[in-house]
Amino acid sequence: MPEPARLRVVAVVEETGESRSLVFEAPPGWSYRPGQFLTLRIPSDRTGSVARSYSLSSSPHVDDALQVTVKRAGYGSNWLCDNVVAGSEVDVLPPSGAFVPSSLDNDVLLLAAGSGITPVMSIAKSVLAAGTGRIALIYANQHQDAVIFAEELREMVARHPDRLLVVHWLESVQGLPTAAALRELSRPFADRECFVCGPGGFMDTAEEALRELDVPSARTHVERFVSLKRNPFERKKRSTSSGPTGGSAETAPEPGSGSADATVELDLDGKHHKLRWPRQKRLLDLLLENGVAAPFSCREGACSACACRIERGEVKMLQNSVLEQEDLDDGIILACQSLPITDEIRIAYE
């Protein structure tokens, strides 16, 4: 797994009554793309520690420090809000995630609710600072006092009135946003690359609105976070004959596939690889064991950092909490959860 670093907190910013931004001193050699996230190690009396992922609200094109914004929503976020102060040190995994724009010169539509503004803010600041794209942001909150980055957004609009449009939706005034309402607000910008982040109900509604506007899945990006079942900071060595749960799906070959190893081919970072793929080994494990620097983060099928595309052959995924049906139909798989079915497989990293 990527090596964690112990980062020092240089500032804690109170954004709202329920949210804080933690500003970390960036370690040498780390870089990130707008929209990515950090995974933090949080102490726990019951388990020693838990791991939680938080989106970066800073921009690599604007900010020298790394900043994540945390809203109270459970044990991990509550602990961070209550205990982390300037001078605190936190174990952090390097930036990861695929919720990133294809180009900062493209026009984008951003749909966010609550703390879902955090990766969206990173994207917006980056586009305005280092690109030429125009931005439309539709931002839903329960009430005015819950709007994270309210003042910063006003300042950004004042500096870029011709490139940034912000539409606020307040549930205290307008009720819950409906698919019909989001559809009409989004209609003038439906030809853009679209990014959706927020609570599950909001994202489902926003996705429905974009589907009704016939926005292709290839132009729709959705960021979903789920609690990790396994702590990526733990150093326990994994067995090569079974996965972390030792479930039956990993201890028996796929029916009809035979017991002989499969073969997988891929090109990554300008190098061609052809590897024997044991039936009981996950693809990501195989690549890492053979020195292939494949991207990954959670190893649980709960993020899209290890996503790749099947160009030939077929695999079985053991777990998937992030890919939509459109992604699966397009051949996208999670390397950390994939076992071979056919004898010959080719994958591509994009």
From TrEMBL:
Start and end residues of each 2Fe-2S ferredoxin-type domain: 262-350
Record-linked PANTHER family: 1,2-PHENYLACETYL-COA EPOXIDASE, SUBUNIT E (PTHR47354:SF8), NADH OXIDOREDUCTASE HCR (PTHR47354)
UniProt-recorded name of the protein: Ferredoxin--NADP reductase
Region (Disordered): 233-263
Start and end residues of each FAD-binding FR-type domain: 2-102
Alphabetized Pfam families for the sequence: Fer2, NAD_binding_1
Entry keyword annotation includes Nuclease: no
A GO MF term: 2 iron, 2 sulfur cluster binding
Transmembrane intervals: none
Source species of the chain: Saccharopolyspora hirsuta
Record flagged with keyword Flavoprotein: yes
Source taxon at top rank: Bacteria
Cofactor(s) needed for function: FAD
